[in-house]
Design brief:
alpha+beta; about 35% helix; Arc Repressor Mutant, subunit A; 2 domains; 7-stranded antiparallel sheet; 10 strands; 3-stranded antiparallel sheet; about 290 residues; 9 helices
Length: about 290
């Protein structure tokens, strides 16, 4: 997407009724109908679809609006016009309005795809884009989706709009070949980064040790981190471990070696932890 995608000085959030979608071989798990306007872009709806069709049944279709597709689970190929593109967890596609596309599954597990319907003038000017989220960015999106599905109450629409912007910004950066933006938050996050180093035993500090190193009571530190980054102290720690794990795996390190480096006593436990964060085994990010 373009440099000014989803950015602008005036942002308006409206909740509108959307026409009932025609029958499709998917089942929405989370659905938010929105009209989030950001400059020349708007987000009309945000949903997570579970594909239901048998492998041999394809459904080529087109939309009058643009779409951002992010696959959270499953493997296959995304057909856009006459071109085929491999798709798997973390793969992002921007489909321009009116472009015929379809998804063909190759894995035994039904695919799960996060879909954003995009309106406004800007999507009509964009061409097809494809990108791949990092393990860290994919884990962050999964957290946003999980939080959104658990939201309820009067501020639901605002929460959905905020989640949509965070998710779409990560997808935009992936399509542009950029890494996720570094988190803001000022002094407390800088203080945490200075405390983030292995101890004498080679293990990375747990939340209680981070509290001791920063000189702040654990609950108070957790509140400050959450206010600065939107993450709990434990989630911040998991993100830092995940970032290190991804870099080592991409560099060719074996899963067992990465597990030991990060202080996990058992490679199997490390693999389960990694899958919990990203939905994928660590071998997905290994070059081999």
């Amino acid at each position: 997407m373009g440099k000014n995608a989803l950015s602008g000085t005036k942002t308006t959030l409206l909740i509108v009724l959307m026409p009932k979608a025609p029958p499709a071989p998917v089942a929405p798990i989370v659905l938010r109908r929105l009209q989030l306007r950001c400059g020349d872009w708007s987000v009309r709806a945000l949903r997570v679809n579970r594909h239901l069709q048998p492998f041999e049944r394809y459904a080529p279709h087109r939309h009058p609006h643009g779409q951002m597709l992010l696959y959270l689970r499953g493997r296959g190929e995304q057909l856009v016009g006459r071109h085929k593109h491999p798709a798997g967890p973390g793969t992002v596609f921007f489909i321009p309005p009116g472009r015929i596309h379809e998804f063909r599954e190759h894995a035994p597990r039904r695919a799960i795809c996060l879909v954003a319907d995009l309106g406004g003038a800007a999507p009509r000017k964009q061409g097809f884009r494809r990108g791949q989220l990092s393990a860290e960015a994919l884990a962050s999106v999964r957290q946003q989706v999980a939080a959104l599905s658990a939201e309820s109450g009067r501020n639901l629409e605002l929460a959905a709009g905020g989640a949509a912007l965070v998710i779409l910004d990560a997808c935009r950066r992936a399509c542009a070949g950029k890494s996720s933006a570094p988190p803001s938050g000022g002094a407390i996050l800088m203080r945490l980064q200075r405390a983030w180093r292995p101890g004498p035993d080679g293990r990375w500090p747990r939340p209680a040790e981070l509290s001791r190193r920063t000189g702040l009571q654990k609950d108070y530190l957790n509140r400050l981190v959450r206010r600065a980054s939107g993450l709990t102290l434990g989630q911040w720690r998991d993100r830092e471990l995940l970032r290190s794990a991804e870099n080592q795996l991409k560099g060719g390190s074996r899963v067992a070696a990465v597990s030991e480096t990060l202080g996990f006593s058992d490679p199997s436990y490390f693999a389960r932890w990694f899958r919990k964060q990203t939905g994928l085994p660590p071998s997905h990010w290994s070059p081999t």
